[in-house]
Amino acid sequence: MFFILSKLLFFLLIPFFWIIILLVWIYFVKSVRLKRRLTILTVCIAIIFSNPWFYKKVTLAWQTPKKVLLPQEQYEVGILLTGMVQFDKYNQGFFGGSADRFIQTATLYHTGKIKKILVTGGSGSLLHDYPAEAEYLKNALVANAVPEKDIIVEPLSRNTYENALFSKKIIDSLQLKPPFLLITSASHMPRSIAVFKKAAIQFVPYPCDYKVVEEKFSFDDMIMPDAKLLKIWSELLKEMIGLAAYKLTGKA
Questions:
Q1: For residue 143, how many other CB atoms are within 10 A of its CB?
Q2: What is the pLDDT of residues 79-91, one digit of tens each?
Q3: 22-38: average pLDDT
Q4: Radius of gyration of the chain (CA)
Q5: What's the CA gap between 133 and 82, in Å, rounded?
């Protein structure tokens, strides 16, 4: 039920959707005073959530800082969270914008920082029967010279909570040696940390796929709106509200 609700309510996190709802409300409302207040609210949402400077500052504050591994650091297993592959109607997979998770994992393996890779994640789709993403990534890792014997696949989990829950079962059954290196996007890492800690898994966070990095000041970011952000904000809000929901339901 939690999984279904999270998918159905995701559209409520899109600022563009808020603006549409407010515009419809403004059109039908009779009160001039209320109409004026709703108009001000709509304009404020449009300005705030299309401002690149504000988006970057919030994202930088949310993302987990970069982890620099020491020369002698080595881990038995790297746990790779899925969420970087999309499938077309023919069930053919394509890497998306979070493919840095894959790149970093393969690099960590080939540089000897991790000895094995546990890929966790099935299909996160509510309506379509897509293949398990973990299976796709296993094949992609093998194609990138990672031996199949060093890849452990968890193909059933549908969200971060299940990633941790099912990974814990595999870790215990195979008696894998902690701590593990937890690999996921920097903006997804705060939620992942909370959930994996709750699952009593010993790990070291290794964030990657940074959506925003510290840049030199740009005056354009302060004054030039970017309409794309009205959709992009939903991903960051999903992480923030998702973490709060996990804590409220005892999953983190």
A1: 8
A2: 999 999 999 989 9
A3: 96
A4: 21
A5: 7
